[in-house]
Amino acid sequence: MKSRELYIAYSVRRDQDLWQDLCTGDRNALDYIYYSQVPALLAYGRHLTPDSTLVDDCVQDLFVDLWIKRDRLGAVRTIRFYLMKALKHRIVRELQNQKKRRSLTESEGAFEDLIDPNPFFPTGQYQPTSAVMECLNKLSPLQKEIVYLKYFNGLTFDEIGDILELDKKQLYNALSKAMHNLRGMLKLAVFIALLVY
Predict the structure, then answer these.
(1) Residue closest to 182 by CA, chosen among 135, 114, 149
(2) Per-residue pLDDT reduced to its tens digit, 47-70
(3) How many Cβ atoms are within 10 Å of 139's Cβ, its own excluded?
(4) In this structure, what DSSP letter does residue 115 have?
(5) What are the two backbone dihedrals, phi and then psi, of residue 141, each rounded to the nearest 5 degrees?
């Protein structure tokens, strides 16, 4: 099936139904999940580690494993959450195996690198302006990751906490600080813009 036809045919399906199709051996469901999720997974993986070859390999291996183990997969609520969590665990394991372990919260990736670059499968999510991107890049790596997962991927607090291994209190505190910092930076940016004009 051509990618555009595939997108049209499967885009109206709920995540649970797509996942069930994958689990029962529907290769088109796997293709749709792959094409619709890989850009966001690659962006997220490259935020976690600068080793783009490792990220590419982990994403490919993740989908190979999905297909091989399809009849043993459990139910999922949201596909993107499941894949992001699985990818993060795979990358951490690979970094440990390669003795390149480093703290994922020390990532220096720019926020714009996280935005889904694939216009063919738009997520319908907010696309920030350059001023907002500047402010987002000034957040701590953990705050950037939480904002990205919450507002650019629509994950729930429970899902984000599960991926980042944070309890709700830690997650709420980090997000609250991020929003406080963003508001302060944006107010300053608006004030400076008004002075310039």
Answers:
(1) 135
(2) 888 889 999 999 999 999 999 999
(3) 21
(4) S
(5) -55, -40
Gap between the Cα atoms of 133 and 135, Å rounded: 5
Residue 144, C-beta contacts closer than 8 angstroms, at least 6 positions apart: 47, 109, 111, 114, 136, 137, 178
Question: In this structure, is the dihedral angle defined by the CA atoms of residues 176, 178, 183 and 188, taken in order, positive or negative?
Answer: positive
**pLDDT of 74-120, one tens digit each?**
989 899 999 999 999 999 888 887 754 444 445 555 555 555 444 33
Q: What count of other Cβ atoms lies within 10 Å of the Cβ of residue 133?
A: 14
d(Cα 82, Cα 20) in Å, to the nearest integer? Answer: 14
Within 10 A of 163 (CB to CB), how many other CB atoms are there? 20
| Rounded Cα–Cα distance for residues 115 and 81 (Å) | 16
The DSSP-derived string for 19-88 is HHHHHTT-HHHHHHHHHHHHHHHHHHHHHH-S-HHHHHHHHHHHHHHHHHTGGGPPP-S-HHHHHHHHHH
How many residues make up the chain in this entry? Answer: 197
> What confidence category does residue 194 fall into, taking pLDDT thresholds of 50, 70 and 90?
low
b/e map 176-191, b = 16+ CB within 10 Å: eebeebbeebeeeeee
